[in-house]
């Protein structure tokens, strides 16, 4: 892995760095480029704007890795309030939510995470929308897939995320035949024993997995900004005779917005992953790690305000 990327990912988990950045006068513009805002209202506003431009949305209430039941409960309530607002504003048919199990208690107790995820899925169903369970580092993959399997018994439309950098992922694609599956490259620092470290190998595995998902009967969601992968997926979708509404592209809020608009104008379903909330630090660091050139810009914003 690129040493700068490793360093930034290490900083993402370092409390001293976290405190320094969180209390520094970070330019609002840098954070606002990738994060919709800190409140439910700001998330709903960003959603309305994207939907008006022909895009769909998945919303992520920022926060992860909690070992505190109160924090997990606060996260569940934030999702319930968000779903309520999406319903009230008529946006629920174009917007779903993405949930990290570690934010709703997975590290404390898998059962608690299942119960909390189920509460969010039930509320989403009542509002006429769905949930996708984000995937985190490889130590949580089995647990997340177990919770997903349980949740899908009652809410079969609940989506999974699979990461192409993991060696196991092609097998997981087959195991999740028929499901809604978001395929991404993977964002965590993983050991070579479980993950491909060569970016070319990750891309090859992405294409293998994309083919498997497109050949199946599920609803694949291709989460990537990589122009080559977008092109290959679009070509493979045509080859598999996929109708335009039988798969979608997904990109992150603030990243390649012109490409999001272009794909939507071509008739593709495009969904934007919109993070919001006060806990933006870890998310922002992962985005910077993907694009070390942006780090200089970010560091400048820490000192100049
Ligand atoms: P890659 O990083 O190789 O980038 C390809 C190109 O995209 C770059 O050359 C550049 O042009 C552009 N680009 C990428 N990042 C950029 C940036 N920050 N700023 C500007 N341009 C940029 N991961 C995970 O582990 N678990 C999860 O649940 C999810 N969920 C998820 C949902 C959605 C909708 C998306 C789009 C992504 C995720 N991810 C994720 C993150 C994912 O695993 C991956 O880390 C990022 O998407 C970056 O990988 P790319 O496929 O974009 O390719």
UniProtKB/TrEMBL annotation:
Could you provide one GO biological process annotation from this protein's UniProt record? L-proline catabolic process to L-glutamate
Key words, A-Z? FAD, Flavoprotein, Nucleotide-binding, Oxidoreductase, Proline metabolism
Q: Pathway listed for it?
A: Amino-acid degradation; L-proline degradation into L-glutamate; L-glutamate from L-proline: step 1/2
Q: Tell me which residues bind FAD.
A: 135, 163, 185-187, 224-225
**What SUPFAM superfamilies does the record point to?**
FAD-linked oxidoreductase
Instruction: Relay the cofactor remark from the entry.
Output: Binds 1 FAD per subunit.
Q: Please give the catalytic activity noted in the UniProt record.
A: L-proline + a quinone = (S)-1-pyrroline-5-carboxylate + a quinol + H(+)
Q: Name one GO molecular function term.
A: proline dehydrogenase activity
One Pfam annotation reads Pro_dh
Residues holding substrate: 100, 286-287
According to the UniProt record, what class of enzyme is this?
oxidoreductase
Q: Which InterPro entries match?
A: FAD-linked_oxidoreductase-like, PRODH_bac_arc, Proline_DH_dom, Proline_oxidase
Q: What is its EC number?
A: 1.5.5.2
The Proline dehydrogenase domain covers 45-297
As cofactor, the record names: FAD
What name appears for this protein in its UniProt entry?
proline dehydrogenase
Species the sequence originates in: Saccharothrix espanaensis (strain ATCC 51144 / DSM 44229 / JCM 9112 / NBRC 15066 / NRRL 15764)
């Amino acid at each position: 892995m690129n040493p700068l990327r490793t360093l930034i990912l290490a900083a993402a988990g370092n409390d001293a760095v976290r405190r320094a950045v969180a209390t520094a006068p970070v330019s609002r513009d840098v954070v606002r480029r990738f994060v919709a805002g800190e409140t439910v209202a700001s998330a709903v506003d960003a959603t309305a704007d994207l939907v008006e431009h022909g895009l769909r949305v998945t919303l992520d209430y920022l926060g992860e890795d909690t070992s505190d039941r109160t924090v997990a409960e606060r996260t569940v309530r934030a999702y319930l309030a968000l779903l309520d607002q999406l319903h009230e504003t008529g946006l629920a048919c174009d917007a779903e939510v993405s949930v990290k199990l570690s934010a709703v208690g997975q590290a404390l107790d898998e059962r608690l995470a299942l119960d909390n995820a189920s509460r969010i899925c039930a509320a989403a169903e009542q509002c006429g929308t769905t949930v996708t369970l984000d995937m985190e580092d490889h130590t949580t993959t089995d647990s997340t897939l177990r919770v997903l399997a349980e949740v899908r018994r009652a809410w079969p439309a609940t989506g999974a995320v699979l990461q192409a950098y993991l060696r196991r992922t092609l097998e997981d694609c087959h195991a999740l035949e028929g499901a809604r599956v978001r395929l991404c490259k993977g964002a965590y620092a993983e050991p070579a024993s479980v993950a491909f470290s060569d970016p070319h190998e990750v891309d090859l595995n992405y294409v293998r997995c994309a083919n498997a998902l497109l050949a199946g009967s599920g609803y694949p969601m291709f989460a990537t900004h990589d122009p080559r992968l977008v092109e290959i997926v679009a070509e493979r979708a045509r080859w598999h005779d996929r109708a335009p509404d039988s798969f979608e592209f997904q990109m992150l809020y603030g990243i390649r917005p012109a490409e999001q608009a272009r794909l939507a104008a071509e008739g593709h379903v495009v969904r934007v992953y919109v993070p919001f909330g006060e806990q933006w630090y870890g998310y922002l660091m992962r985005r910077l790690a993907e694009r070390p050139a942006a780090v200089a810009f970010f560091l400048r914003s820490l000192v100049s305000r």
